[in-house]
Design brief:
single chain; 224 residues; alpha+beta; Immunoglobulin-like; Type 1 dockerin domain; 3 domains; 5-stranded mixed sheet; 11 strands
Amino acid sequence: MRGKISRRILVAGLLLFGVLASSFTVHGVSPTKIYVDPQSIEDTNLSPGKTFSIKINTANVSNLSGYDFNMSYNTVILTCIGVLVGPLGNMPNPMWKIDDEKGNVWVNVTYGTPLTAYSPETLTSFTFMVQGRGSGVFDLYHTNLVNSSGQPISHEVSDGYFVNGSPYDLNKDGHVNIVDVVIVATSFGKKEGDPGWDPRADVNGDGVVNIIDLVLIGTHFGET
């Protein structure tokens, strides 16, 4: 009888150990991240003069005492007009520099109390004003995270993407011009599934390239 009880205790102990080990593994292997949020902004309504914001978040980080990073952006279409460092309740000591000629921002932050965050936590947010139309990458580079001992924290980095180009700019070069007319003209009369079908030429998305598509391009010709 004692042997059966001992075996049951052993089995229960092994099961409990397995659950704890599994839980530890999940947290242990989750990499620390620093990333742009949202990862992609694709909005033709973000026309010149409008503003929007992005966040630089971290997740799965423990004992974060400070960080610094650079981020580049496309100055042809964007201007950085604001920086906000958080989380505000942590009383961070921030420094930053905006170089709008080169399209680069640098941020350096030291925390009074080390930050631990397994769920996403915003480190910095940026506000941009739209200057033109086109696309670009929010490229995070030279990212450094350090713990309270001054040791680097290994982490993964994810960039962001922005596009506000006109839907009539078929080749996405920032202009509605003769190139876009040629794209439609080359596929004129073709239907979806035909040899040589170019979905870009079907401007209104009705499954056929016809005069309506040409008129749409002509109406917006010269736009940027």
